[in-house]
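User: Can you write out an input/output pair for a complex, sequences first and structure second?

Assistant: Here is one pair. Inputs:
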Amino acid sequence: MLKITNLHVAVDDKPILKGLNLEVAAGELHAIMGPNGSGKSTLGYALAGRDGYEITSGAVDFEGRDLADMEPEERAAAGLFLAFQYPVEIPGVNNAYFLRAALNAQRAARGEPEVDSMAFLKAVRESLKALKMDESLLKRAVNEGFSGGEKKRNEIVQMAVLKPKLAILDETDSGLDIDALKLVAEGINRLRDPARSFVVITHYQRLLEYLEPDRVHVLSDGQIVESGGRELAERLESEGYAFLESDAVEV
Amino acid sequence: MSVLAENLLSDAVLADSYGAVRKRAQAELMRHGFPDIKTEAWKYTSLRALEKRSLVPGEHQPASPPPVPFDHHLLHIDAGRLLSDSSSLPSGISIEPVDSNRLAGLDYGNRGGAFGWLNLARFEQGLKVVINGRLDQPLMLALTTPDGHADACHPRIEIELTAGSRACLVQLDSSNGSGLVNAVIDLKVGENARLDHALSRHNGDAIWIERLDVALAAGADYRLVTLDGGGRLTRQDINVALNASGARCEVDGSVLIGARQHVDFHTAIDHCVGGTNSRERFRMLADGNGVGVFNGRIHIHPGADDSHSDLNTGNLLLSEQARINTKPELEIHAEEVTASHGATVGQLDEQALFYLRSRGLSAEAAANLLKTGFAAAPLETAVDDAVRQWLLANLGDWL
Amino acid sequence: MNQTVEQVDRYIRQRYKAGFYTDIESDRVPAGLNEEIIAMISAKKEEPEWLLEWRLKAFHHWQTMVGPNWAMLKLPAIDFQKIHYYAAPKQQDRPKSLDEVDPKLLETFDKLGVPLHERARLAGVAVDAVFDSVSVGTTFQKELAEAGVIFCSFSEAVKDHPELVREYLGSVVPYTDNYFAALNSAVFSDGSFVYIPENTRCPMELSTYFRINARDTGQFERTLIIAEPGSEVSYLEGCTAPMRDENQLHAAVVELVARKQARIKYSTVQNWYPGDENGKGGIYNFVTKRGDCREDDARISWTQVETGSAITWKYPSCILRGDRSAGEFYSVALTHNHQQADTGTKMIHLGKNTTSKIISKGISAGKSNNSYRGLVRVARRADNARNYTQCDSLLIGKTCGAHTFPYIESANPTATIEHEATTSRVGEDQLFYCRSRGLDEENAVAMIVDGFCKEVFKELPMEFAVEAKALLEISLEGAVG
């Protein structure tokens, strides 16, 4: 599904990712953990194609296509989804309208017909209900006036409606209380599918308790310095990131 | 004599029952002259485009009133003269000539108000419309010019709402000619009356100068929503006087300015007495080498204690050659007042664009969505559903 | 009670404390303005020919100009022929050191809290003291010279550093700039000159204290600060005048030049005599101040506390020419009785990635009018320019006015400009809350006003922040009730 080889990314000429390697097979859920400033969000933005996140060397292969050559909307149409750490407020643009426009644009790019309005509304309503979000949110502007938790849950609603092949969740757990965290985790688990993969970027292992990660990676100073199973996340939780300092040299 | 005076004034004063009024107006205009960019209120708007026009009278077919998708009563004024059949208007709407005594008392000040004087000197047919009671349908005021119009015209309309009346006024300004339209609209909203006013304008080569003076009595409520789709040179003055306690106004507008266009909105809200409220929000989008000018003045007069006002102007520059000049002004002479204003000038939010594109929208679709969202917000305040939908549809067509 | 509050208390008990007059024999040119008077001033100052020519050009240009006629600004007719354009305390020769200065003059500055003697000098602050049209003396000159810093009166600079003066004079504010700048260029008398060499951080605060003393005279000083690449300087000016029934004119020009990576911080505590409670007397303060961030990464910051003068008309501005250069303007303007303040700034963004910040706090009381008038202009090539403006007004009483005229002009789509303004009053509930905690009304108002101005005060050098705070409180005396 996703194969990242020796990826170097610079922001404002400053190298952030320095030779990152990662392979995610279809159906897998990978967690990427790491201290602040290790390059976690940069990875998300670089994969989604944000301007200013320049791939200076290396390759990102997504289902046989080179992501570097694709515009953000082409990546979305190809099935890539980034749940933003800080979802953007868009005053004046109605939430439901936005989501439908996005879905139809993706479908058009894939040569699929426009979605049926009734089916669309039904799908959105179900997702909203599952995430315990009020339907009135649909009539409001995208993320405007949403609480922090509502914004994060809204990202999951979008993911459920857009049904990507690969979802990158950038600190979707931060700022959530335990109930909201469970709802988000359930939202992710409902979408687990042999044909769909997840990359969950997180600072804490809290969210991972409710998910079943196939692999856990530790990102430090722009590289993956350690990979393992779920036990790695638990070790990070109990020992903190400090142990990286000593281990990193040996890895 | 200046080029403008030569083009726009003739020695012969129109001989009708308004002769004295016209004579005085012409004398005032000659005394003050036309504004130039040293005139504070015209600092950013040059009249060169008007000076260069050769205005020629001609015989043209009158325009037909533009279609709108809702039921309405119609007042169609073409090149300053009433064209529609006023006998079909309901009993709550009556039409009479403007009162020359009232005109004799008007004062448009010095050269900043030159076009007010010009209108007074040259208006074709002064119409006064009195609205009494509640109108069942919007009253549509269509100001048009004949096809190919290349002359100057000076429509003059007064609309008065008697105490307790309520109406929705939909004004549509349009010309496909290359002349000058210099309109003056006087609105009087009586005690506890309410006027919802929607103004939609879209011009090509015509030069459109319009002055809207609104006077509010005690408890009167005036809501203006305006959408300007741009034009070669457009200047709109909006002056609202909150003359008695309990009066309030809301002024919202979106202005789209394209290549080779120049649109200037000057608004002034006067809190003449205390216990008055105002809110104003304007959005301008300038594209191509278009120029947008906004001057929003809030004046709280001495003694107008306990008045409250808020003004907000947001501006988007959509191209490298576009320009925006904006000035939100506050002039406060009273106590117990809250007044605030905010202004921003910027471009489409790069983060929001990326967010939309990451959800699959093309760069163009994302930009359009953001522009529409930005410009639609002021229009959303239109009270009448059908009118609001019509404004939003116009926005979609013109953006 | 802490020291600040004590100081405030002391200040509150006195009115305009700088209102005394020094009885000293003065050498004045006759009243009037013409070519001979200008030649006379130039001769008295033993100026080179080129400077007299420059003055005359400015004078001829001024004769073609008219004064500003702006909304909410009432400028009285000024009879320029009745003013004496030069007045200096009489003395034989120019004193070679401060020991030779007339003791009466030293005593005057002592009384104003600006002692010039060796033993009493303000620590860490070098002072140039200007009395009417001449500089009385400059402290710490030797110490500064060791660091390569030139700090002297403008007249001395014309004699000792003519090449610098000639290169930079009028290069930021040309004499054609405006009515009062043209007048100043024709008749300017003295002022301060500062030169900071490359990569030098000025070892102490520099300060000029302006004093108008003589009757019927105007003060027309000129200040020029040049900061070479990589240098840094903080400069402060203070001003006072005796209480008189007649209005006196003060028309100054200040030019700042900041070269690559240089930083200039310019602070003003302006306390010219404001006139009495009926609006009689007071200084007309018409000042052109402008800084030029001439090269990349230069930074100029203006901070002003304006409490004095019958009329204040000044707009300390920044021309952001160099890429990434930055301008700041922090202002507190307080008006009471019949005072008028019309002040603000201009931020002209020419270079790429330039930034500016404007924080303006206006407080109006009595029958005064207080206006913020500002311009933010982004030129077409000023990519990614950023401006943030906050303009707040506080009204005390029913008869005063607070006005805001912000001009915003943007010709570059990548620029971001944000402007916010609020007008409010000292709230009944705020006052009541303070009073229910035991403060009297005047103290409560002082506290609320102080809070309102905090963002600006924190930009002032420590010693002056205290003085500025105290000044506000005296100026507000009698504003409540």
